[in-house]
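TL;DR need structure tokens for one chain.
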Amino acid sequence: MRMSIPGYNVLVQPLTELLERVFAASGGKRTKQAAASVLLADVGWSDVHVECLEKTKAVLGNVVELCHPDPQQRICVFADASEGHWGSVITQVPPDQLQRPFDAQNHQPLMFPSGTFTGAAGRWAIVEKEAYAIVETLVRADYLLHPAAGFNLYTDHCNLKFIFSPTAVVASVPKYTAQKLERWALLLMGYSYVIHDIPGEVNVWADLLSRWGSTLPSICAIKQQPLLISPLRDDKFVWPTFVSIAEAQVAVPDDVLSGMAKSKDAAHLVVLASGQSWFLRLVDDVIWVPAAAAELQLRLCV
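>> reply
TL;DR here they are.
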């Protein structure tokens, strides 16, 4: 089940740490019978663990659907590591799509291995952690990774391309680190693969492990407004009136109005909201609408 959950170790870390305290409180016995004798309240059960448990239940109810391996497709392995955890994604993709950009390839997930760096492993250099993510992925998915055509291995740590010459990775790599990488290189010799180093921003499958099912709060909500076929379909649409035209004319400077004729039609006498009586201004015997009143002009054109 855990192979169907991206970033499983990060998700359940609070519960894993609590379980370790339970085993310690039971005298070091790592059995269900020994753990059953320990009360969770005695080892620090809190709201953090309740929230973690609920998140885990929700994820289990919506696990990623994995695909069956297809020998006609190319297997791809994406591995990545952080300070405390490592994760990888094994996918398959049609061979004719490998030349496309990653976001245009139709990858089908096969497995989501993951793990946590504990003890001395937590103090490893980043090159060791990145290499371990690859090695452990190959070990766990060994039954998948021996196709006749081999597979593609992707990493965002370019130095890992030279893992078969570990002493040349970086001049500052300690001797014990180089020896460790050399041992892992011997293990990788049992596989047929092509390794690619890709920029971190392109390593989307590996980076997706930390973002899959994210519960980060929304910063803003985006709502798409449908384009109206006609303004008449808008519930807020109001036909222009003499009053609205008069209000637009009143807002125009007096020096502009002084050159315009007042209408003598009694129907064009308007009482404004301020109580002022106003005869509509005319231009060439036509009611004048100020150029600044663009919204009013649009409503007149409907």
